[in-house]
Amino acid sequence: MAKTATMTVWNVQLGLAVHIKAPNGKYVVIDLGTGDYNSGNTSPLAKLRWNNIAYMIITHPHLDHIDDILHFDNNAPKILKRATSLTNEEVMEGVRDCDKEKFEKYCEINDQYNSPVSSNDSNNPDNSDNYGGLEIQTFSTSACDHSNFNNFSTIAVFTLSGVKVVVCGDNETASLDVLMQKDSFKSAIKNADILVAPHHGRESAYHSDFVAKVNPRLTIISDTNKIGASASDKYTRISRGWEVENSNGEMNKRYCLTTRNDGNIQVVFGESDDMRYNGLLAVKCFK
After folding, report:
1. How far apart are CA 219 and CA 259, in angstroms?
2. Phi then psi for 214, rounded to 5 degrees?
């Protein structure tokens, strides 16, 4: 019987919004970026309004990662992970008046999800059976300077049928330096198939040891043309390549995809009824 997961990286310009549908239909949401009317992704979260969001990860409290948070209550997740070592006072410091409502909502949610998750909870992400066999691991550090929230970002690793997907937040070299000292982290990210690059693929966040350990077939960058120096050429050179269907239905071997150029990106992985196609099944771009 087929057992597949589907990950969508939405085109939300300078931000991040990732949805993963587990084999049993439960959804994992990573970050709450929003797009514009041209991309059609003004609220990716609203697309899941009638679906089961079992687990949400807000990698860190920066506006481009929580921009859609006012829709949170329309379909609140059962379990929420966020950077709990950052206080509400720190989060609210220096927030512009025009963004205040969104950050206040983040702080409200931060206070709301304060009960430990039971090992028997049917949505506990530590048990892959709760997600149809999709294994979920998360890593972060609280050892970095609190002046830069990027380095508190959660990195999530998803594994199904031997296929591994690594999704980063806005981690920069400081947090990656710390995490790369941990054997459990290096083992989790080793030889992944898909990497969603840290900090929108910026040059300043490119960590050569980290990327070499991930050794991705394909790198995905959620970006915009306003991010400054991009490391997309470096990710292209180090990635192993995979056949990707573009928005016109054409197949080409690709090494690095960007939401800026390729639009929304969908990855289907897991077990197929056709044994020839087990593993990383399909990657396609769509507008």
Report:
1. 11
2. -65, -45
The answer on pLDDT for 228 being more than 80 is no
pTM as predicted: 0.96
* DSSP state, residue 40: T
Mean pLDDT of 149-165: 97
Chain centroid offset of residue 31 CA: 7
Taking Cα atoms as reference points, which of 157, 160, 114 lies closest to residue 139? 157
- Compute the distance between CA of residue 23 and CA of residue 8 in angstroms, rounded to an integer: 14
SS3 238: helix
Strand partners, 20: 7, 28
Query: What are the strands, taking DSSP E only, across the chain?
Result: 3-9, 18-21, 27-30, 53-57, 79-81, 135-139, 155-160, 163-167, 194-196, 218-221, 242-245, 251-254, 256-258, 264-271, 279-286
245: β partners: 251, 284
Q: pLDDT class for 229, splitting at 50, 70, 90?
A: confident
> Dihedrals φ, ψ of 109, to 5°?
-65, -40
Q: How far is CA 118 from the centre of its chain?
A: 24
Query: What are the residues whose beta carbons fall under 8 Å from the beta carbon of 5, sequence distance 6 or more?
Result: 20, 21, 22, 23, 132, 134, 158, 160, 268, 269, 270
Q: What pLDDT, in 10s, does the model give residues 50-77?
A: 899 999 999 999 999 999 999 999 999 9
CA angle in degrees (0–180, nearest 5) for 93-175-97: 20
